[in-house]
Amino acid sequence: MSTHTVLGREVQMPVRIRHARAFMATYRVPADAAQRLIDYSGLRVLRVPRDRALCILVFVEYIDGDLGPYNEFGVSFMVRHHAAARDGGLADLRALATGKAGVFIHQLPVDGDFTLAAGRGIWGFPKEIAEFDVNHEGGLRRGVLRQDGDLVVDLSVKSGLSTPGGRGAGTSFDAYSHIDGLTRCTAWEMGPSGMRARPGGVELRLGDHPIATELAGLGLPTRAPMASTVDRLTMTFQDAVPV
Asked: pLDDT of 112-155, one tens digit each?
């Protein structure tokens, strides 16, 4: 078991999140444009039919975890695992269906100094401080993100139908990050419950912030083929490994 010192405090691995909640929208975006955006990582986007990539926008509230309470907004892309023997076509779809793909965390604003230091120092997550106004209650979840007073995104997600048994299958997509010229891979396990999903039901407004400009370059806002809400989420993060 490894230990990291963050702002004078010891953090033991693995890091556990005992209670979080989230809502997210998944978009199909042009694969070539998405690839150009993440070329710096050395990773390759998963390509789904019609030469599209999957871009996920998510607001997460961390309520009880080893890094304390905080809010987070993520822009991520489904990518091929760095150790995958095959890629393209059916191999990409099979990896997505069986949990053998990866999630590349491209943007990750947060509202806490400790989680920023831990995220960047332990895993290389590209965390930056931003301002959050988020509602995780009721049939319409909404998150407004600003940085230095400038609007980044305003995302609203309507609650959908409960997944069978009210639970989502635990997932184990590895998480990828890149800062300071280094790409890292982190084993990341999630256990969602109280999960609801639906096609559509998303409203996205972009500001003039550089993150918003990147999203507009992918063709957003457009119709999101899938929206999800999770009332309770547990997570476990292992140490990051350079790739």
From this structure: 999 999 999 999 999 999 999 999 999 999 999 999 999 999 99
Task: Return the closest-CA partner of residue 166 out of 227, 99, 236, 232.
Answer: 232
Residues 6+ apart with CB under 8 A from 90: none
pTM comes to 0.95
What are the structure tokens assigned to 62, written together?
């961390």
- Please state, in angstroms and as integers, the Cα–Cα distance from residue 25 to each residue in 40, 143, 155, 224, following that order: 24, 12, 9, 6
| Residue 150 CB burial class (10 angstroms; 0-12, 13-18, ≥19) | middle
Q: CA-to-CA distance for 149 and 36, rounded, in angstroms?
A: 28
Indicate the average pLDDT of the chain.
93
Tokens found for residue 76: 């991520």
Instruction: Assign 3-class secondary structure to the chain.
Output: CCEEEECCEEEECCEEEEEEEEEEEEEEEEHHHHHHHHHHHCCCECCECCCEEEEEEEEEEEEEECCCCEEEEEEEEEECCCCCCCCCHHHHHHHHHHCCCEEEEEEEEECCHHHHHHHHHHHCCCEEECEEEEECCCCEEEEEEEECCEEEEEEEEECCEECHHHECCCECCEEEEEECCEEEEEEEEEEEEEEEEECCCEEEEECCCHHHHHHHHCCCCCCCCEEEEEEEEEEEEEEEEEC
